[in-house]
Design goal:
This protein is α+β, with helices and mostly antiparallel strands and 610 residues long. Helix content is 35%, strand content 12%.
Length: 610
């Protein structure tokens, strides 16, 4: 930490929201006290730290792709089960995605460094803002609350990334707590101590911003943002009275929510949401990228991994929807085979491909899952002109391609079956070398009206692009990342209801509100009486599936699974091991950057050995 903070104290020039301001860590507390208005600029400087590309580790300029939020969303979303990746990449997300961690990649080292810059800046402001001597106490209260919020969220990000889940034990090693300007000692606090500190900071943020006045649109932190984050923290803790605390906070928030967030979100409204998140009633807080001032290289945005178009080829398009997530959305279909879920229609897209290599057959495409990482790489994509039998089954003759290169011509009988409340297709034999996977059967995924060549890449992966991070200012890979929004608040309350006991109907009411918002029909709504027909034995699993759909690609899924002591099933197509990860697997806690370990003798590294 001494080394990291030595780098962080240097004078930097930042820009945000088209305003000039002092660097958030370039002024001392004394200077801020001498010029109280400076706290506005130094606080605004912290907003920039979430999105700026700063010189790091001796660089003369920012390294392409080094942005706190870009790394944060990569380190969270790729470790769940919503995203599948086509192969190795020059970008360092591959190892965390595979749960094969190393301690010196730029994504982790920059994220750790920048989080503690945010904390340092917030501490400087907290120590300097003097309410009693202020000539604008309302503004001073607001700024003080914002800085407590920033300190809380940076610590929270770090403890959820670099420590084991709270449910694994309060006494496990956490991260370094910095709650003042004394940096003479560097040691890891416990997970429980870290969570307690985050809770106390958010309570102070709520108290102070409650006496202030929000400074603008959803680009700025507000008392609602602090409450929403605190509700999330309580949900992650989930013991003792914390679930009720979560419910109480969500009740308070929802009682003051805009009426519009309970109405239907059309495909058009959802499609437009990433274009101007800071202006939407749905957003509680986002980090506002102002175009073109704040726009990073189009290939270095969060959205660059999810999308690329023929007209805008600056993205990479290396991350795709997992088949299981697609199937979840496709439980309810229109007559033409499309999903009835407006969220899916708004954000799911097939990639473009040059016209001269497309095969226009307008027929179904069938694909098998693969045990897709390692020497037994199995490409199993089959396309073109398949016709269903009268009973809905398929007979398919095809080549199985394996690595090392072999061919095996086989004919498979593919049968439909009602599974978890919707039609799934299976081959009644095991092609995955995992007897536990679907009880030894092999699932088959049918995609209707897909151009086959268009749908494949890198030896047979099916690629499905995602536009949830796209089209702000007509830029294919740009949005202003949403950190807190109303959909999560409703589902936080739903999960707390489901876990606290005796509140199943209340939990399903919140789930159904989100489902009706997404345009789903009445037959898609859940009751305690009908959920078994959809394959559910408890309400919590209903809630978790709804969270998976509503919050997909927003960095929640991996935390949702592990805090509920569930196992993460990653037996799906992708460049990762075909495995199930338990909630107490030590690989969940990312390795702390080697810079920190070397800078602080005796500093404890995470042990990822099982």
């Amino acid at each position: 930490m001494k080394k990291i903070f030595a780098l962080g104290i240097a004078l930097l020039t930042l820009a945000s929201c088209n305003m000039d301001f002092y660097s958030s860590d370039s002024m001392t507390s004394t200077q801020i006290k001498e010029n109280p208005k400076a706290a506005i600029y130094t606080t605004d400087g912290i907003y920039a730290l979430f999105k700026d590309n700063l010189p790091y580790k001796g660089e003369t300029g920012g390294r392409d792709g080094n942005y706190y939020l870009r790394h944060y969303f990569q380190l969270t979303e790729t470790r769940g089960d919503n995203v599948t990746i086509s192969g190795n990449s020059e970008d360092p997300f591959t190892q965390p995605y595979q749960y094969k961690d190393v301690d010196n990649t730029k994504n982790k080292t920059y994220t750790w460094w920048m989080a503690y810059k945010i904390i340092y800046a917030a501490n400087s402001n907290i120590s300097a803002i003097d309410i009693d001597s202020s000539d604008d106490k309302s503004l001073s209260y607001q700024l003080l609350g914002e800085n407590y919020f920033f300190r809380a969220i940076a610590h929270f990000h770090m403890v959820t990334l670099f420590a084991m889940p709270y449910v694994c034990g309060r006494d496990n090693p956490g991260i370094v707590l910095r709650q003042g300007m004394d940096y003479s000692e560097t040691k890891r606090s416990s997970v429980g101590e870290c969570y307690d500190a985050v809770v106390e900071d958010l309570k102070k943020a709520i108290e102070y911003m409650g006496k202030g006045k929000a400074r603008g649109d959803a680009s700025y932190v507000s008392v609602q943002a602090a409450k929403a984050l605190l509700a999330r923290v309580y949900l992650y803790m989930g013991d003792g009275n914390h679930l009720q605390d979560c419910i109480d906070l969500c009740d308070d928030l929802i009682s003051h929510a805009p009426a519009s967030v309970k109405n239907v979100y059309s495909v058009e409204k959802l499609s437009d949401y990433p274009k101007a998140t800071w202006q939407s009633d749905e957003t509680i807080w986002c980090v506002h990228y102002v175009y073109p001032t704040d726009h990073p290289a189009p290939s270095a945005t969060i959205g660059a991994m999810y999308n690329v178009t023929e007209e805008s080829t600056n993205g990479w398009g290396e991350w795709y929807w997992s088949d299981e997530l697609i199937e979840l959305f496709n439980r309810y279909k229109n007559a033409d085979g499309t999903s009835k879920d407006n969220r899916f229609a708004a954000y799911f897209t097939y990639p473009w491909y040059p016209e001269d290599v497309r095969l226009h057959n307008g027929k179904d495409m069938l694909c098998f899952p693969v045990k897709s990482y390692g020497n037994d790489f199995c490409v199993t994509i089959y396309t073109g002109g398949q016709t269903a039998n009268p009973d809905g089954s398929y007979d398919l003759t095809c080549d199985i391609s394996t690595k090392p290169k072999t061919k095996d011509v086989r004919t498979f009988h593919i049968v439909p079956e009602t599974y978890n409340g919707f039609t799934r297709y299976f081959i009644n034999e095991n092609l995955t070398e995992d007897a536990d996977f679907f009880n030894g059967r092999t699932p088959v995924y049918i995609r209707e009206d897909v151009d086959p060549i268009l749908g494949t890449r890198n030896g047979g992966y099916v690629r499905y692009y995602n536009t949830k991070w796209s089209w702000q200012d007509n830029q294919c890979t740009m949005t202003s990342p949403v950190m807190l929004r109303w959909g999560e608040v409703f589902l936080n309350r739903a999960e707390a209801y489901a876990r606290i006991g005796g509140k199943d109907n209340e939990a399903l009411a919140d789930v159904n509100l989100i489902r009706k918002r997404a345009g789903l029909p009445d037959e898609a709504l859940f009751t305690t009486g009908n959920m078994a027909a959809s394959g559910y034995t408890n309400v919590l699993d209903v809630v978790l599936d709804e969270r998976r759909m509503e919050l997909c690609f927003e960095g929640h899924r991996v935390f949702d699974i592990f805090r509920n002591k569930k196992s993460l099933d990653r037996r799906y197509v992708g460049y990762h091991p075909f495995e199930v990860i338990d909630y107490d697997d030590p690989r969940i806690a990312l390795l702390i950057p080697n810079d920190e370990i070397l800078a602080t003798p005796g500093f404890e590294q995470n042990n990822q050995s099982k």
